[in-house]
User: What shape does this take?
Amino acid sequence: MPDSNTVPLLSVESVSKRFGGLTAVDDVSLKAYAGQMQCIIGANGAGKSTLFNMLCGSLKPTEGTILFQGTDITRLPLHKIARLGISRKFQVPSVFDELTVEDNLDLASKVHGSAAERRVNEVLDTIQLTGQRFIKASNLAHGQKQWLEIGIALMPEPELLLLDEPTAGMTRDETRKTAELLKEVQEGITTIVIEHDMSFVRRLNCHTIVLHHGKLLREGEFGEIEQDQVVREVYLGKQ
Amino acid sequence: MTITSLVPSVMNALTLISVLMLVAMGLGIIFGMMRVINLAHGEFVTIGAFTLSVLQELGGSYWLALMVAPIIGALAGLLVERLIVQHLYTRWLATILATWGLSLIIAQILQIIFGAGPQSVSAPISGTMDILGASYPAYRVFIVLFSAAVLGLVLLMFSRSNFGLDIRTVIQDRDMAEALGIDTKRVFSKAFMLGAALAALAGVLVGPLAVVIAQMGVNYLAKSFFVVIVGGAGSFWGIGAGSAFVGGLETVFTYQMPVTLAQALVLALGIIVLRFRPQGIVPHANIKW
Amino acid sequence: MKILSARQGRNPIRELSTPATAIVLGIVVFVISLYADYYWMMILRDALVFGIFALSLDYLWGRTGLLSFGHATFFGIGAYAVAILSTNFDIANITLLALLAGILASGLVALLFGYFLLFAGVRGPYFTIMTLALTVIASHIAVAWVDVTGGDSGITGVQPLSLTLGDFEFVIFAPQTGLYVALALLLILLLVIWKVATSRYGRLLKALEVNELRARTLGYNTPLHLVGTFTISAMIAALAGGLYASFAGYVAPDLIGLLLSTKVIVWVAVGGRGTLIGPVLGAVFVMQIERELSSINTSLWPLFIGLFFIAMVFLFPNGLVGLVQDLSGKMSKNQKKGGTESA
Assistant: This one.
């Protein structure tokens, strides 16, 4: 764990989001340090996705601030947040169906020309889709689409990687492969994963935040969280 | 400016607003329910006005037309819904193209049958009446009062009847409505007929003031869609706000400039409003019917 | 299976077919022009101008998926700018200057319209409906502002395009000259747009159509790109309108109204949205049918268009070109199966 003197890469300071009368996220604070991986878990409706959407800018918080590398990004438009080096993988694979795997990655590249081509090759290798390079994204299998999504998120060499349920809809085997993939690429990239598949989170075995009814319930290493009585009652107990 | 001098402009605005509300109500509801865009909606207005013309030609009265036109409009709506719209729910582009094709066909058939010239229609009430010291055409007063009564009934139906509740539920969440056992397609079908009937009714009301030709529908179409978009789709008050915006401003501007310029200015202002309120003046989430 | 579909996404054959077809089109038109009489020369010239118009809509609709139901507004702005300025000012090169002014004016209207709507997130059906309102109002203005636009009867005596530089003078008066100018402009635009469409930027525009939110989270200022495409499309439409006015010598409100807006959608749909050359051919082809049908009875044409839209939606949603592709795809599949299934 980094000591408290280090400046966090991302600092979420008591954000709340209300929709009409409903408070989806209630006064949540968290910090992400360079190179760290953490998971946000919680039952459906716990506010995971709302929190996540605020981190990447597609929802604006009702209250609170989000600092990235010391800059206030709370009210920045989506594309400007992306340009600062925050990459996102959507829950539902949202690759560009009409384009090839290669073009999907190329569009996500921050560099052009031969540098872009090198980066595309690297990422293709990482996500193991080199053989599918010229195939239209719509023709990929579901798991492959998820990996392409991760590849798109990796392309610009982000500072912060936000992954929304990277294993949604995957088979057991694909889930295992994805966990390995994430551990591999995570070296050096700060990563926040939203997940409700506990076996997957167990595989990642990282710093974990538990949300419950929009509030931060517990925070700690997964091993501790798993043993926590309250967490077990409200969340794990249901498994 | 005295109150008396304000009466004509206020009444003109109210006339336009009430007609717009009648026409746009159907569009707004069916868009809110199923995201369906019906470009043949203007033809329901035309059908209403032509019903008036034909009935008067045959010696029938205006009042008869006022009763018959909504029925014909509803039947036409049923046909359009069954033959075309129902099959295209999830494809907005296809719906736009198909209903636009239908709009061209209906207008052209009417023109072939009745000719390209304006049809003769006459108002049931002539002369003026006294409002706060100003004299104002009695027929326009009738339009405002009659529309207000009809819209009041529509509002009552939305807020009190089971049918209205069904419509609101579908607008709120279609999946939820189906889970609750509401036959959403049937509700939509009925709402579509209601919208067509209201537009046909508006056709009878405006007939004596407008140039009744086969191509008249498209003006009402463009304007009432504009009302729905600026006001906010899927709610009674959104359409009310949109109608007030479009009808009110257009009337005010018409006193200062040619009517076409006034319309262009209203369009420009509406577009600017949308920049700041993309969901319309009355966004749906805040709606209380 | 996977190997077979390799590079399918880039579809090099279809993309390379544009320059090839453009060259063939150029040669065919040129050969016809050597034999055509005055009347057919005019017909062909107008068809090419409307081909440019169709191309302008396809650049917008085919690339970004935004459908403008009011594209005649921009065609009309170009046409009326040329007509109004060239009949009111008597200075050298006035028609050419008016053409440029019309293109700029059209671009400005599209820029403002697009800025307010597209940056507000107005997309899909909403955007389409707003363009419809735009064209209805534009045609009202053309009809009612009689002092300037000539009202219903329009403006006659529009000056032909000419370029005067010192002693050098070039006037496009004969239909044949107009035809060559229109052909040259059309081919240049086709190649430039093809170049853009097949570049990384073109793929970005496609990506916007497929999933705008995703493109935005990759750091692209997507509304800006949509506004830009809309503006360029409107400027090309105005170029076509201005050319038309200077060639024909007159303008009338039907150049700015909803019916022309509808026609151009038909041309693009018939030719195949997103194929660039298809809409150009669609314009030529459909206008010829329109002429034939209208010579029988002028009221047949709107009926025909109406039926076409309905038939297209239900029978061949990918346009006629798509229909031909589907059919030929089916046929070749059947052949591969050894013809066990009869077509």
About this structure: Chain A touches chain B through one residue (CB under 8 Å). The CA atoms of residues 103 and 225 of chain A lie 41 Å apart. The longest helix of chain A spans residues 172-186. Chain A has one domain: 10-238.
